[in-house]
Amino acid sequence: MEAVARDIKLFSGSAHEALTREICSNLGIAMADRKIFRFSDGEIGVSIQESVRGTDAFIIQPTCDPVNENLMEVLIITDALKRASAYRVNVVLPYFGYARQDRKTRAREPITAKLVANLLQRAGADRVITADLHAGQIQGFFDIPVDHLTGIPLLASHFKRVLKAPLHDGRVAVVSPDIGGVVRARRFAEQINADLAIVDKRRSHDIANVSEVMEIIGDVSGKIAILVDDIIDTAGTIVHAAKALAEHGAEKVYACAVHGVLSGPAVERISKSALEDLILTDTIPLTPEKRELKLTTLSIAPLFAEAIRRIHLDQSVSILFEPKPKKKVVR
User: Is the pLDDT of residue 178 over 50?
Assistant: First the structure.
């Protein structure tokens, strides 16, 4: 019996339709038709407007603000596709909300990232595709395949273009804003042949989103400093780190992150900060007031499009998140 060539269909939640359209454009396909509406009591309603029987269906939805609305939407769309006999339901979460609640730090606390994983699986997800989880171990919360992509090479390539001149002359320092991000910063530094520095800080556990910069580990004096993080939320950590770097003699300070949550006082803090520029990918849509900031947005759509293409064709996806081997230099 001949193998069936399955159709591929991409559905968008309401969180970031622009990203879905760009992914579809990269794949050369049209966005699948669905309706998302609200009942008079506020409940979410979903109607799939075309047949999905036997198709490879992908739902693209970052679970950003409003987090609970967007999460509930993706669960309902997943259930609708599963009940409509889609062959496989792939949930694409460019930004995975609740990822920072990945462990218990105090008695009687929930592990909400695990709860979200359970909900997605019970709703009918056969696979999850995401980028730069705040805690990589969240992949182990799932009993289905998880493809964990990274936007770090995209950010590194941007600085290679912007800084232009050779970066191995010691004039650039990649900086981790905390000890926990050292592995990420080192990987970034290796990709642009830069030095590595670390901001050693003490975080207050009594007040959420408050931290105090202590000292800089590494030499940043007279250098271009690039702060690298996975998420920028209220921007307190990045802004304080930028100030500390400037005080330690950094010539210019840039910041970059895969996910620009930018909640609460983030806009005001960044606008008044020592940052030359803030570089983000578009895993999360920016509201009009956030677009007025001094920031550069990079499209992550090609990365997700290629991952979706490879998954649909049952090809390896590992090449998209494994570091490329370094070229040997013959002297």
Answer: yes
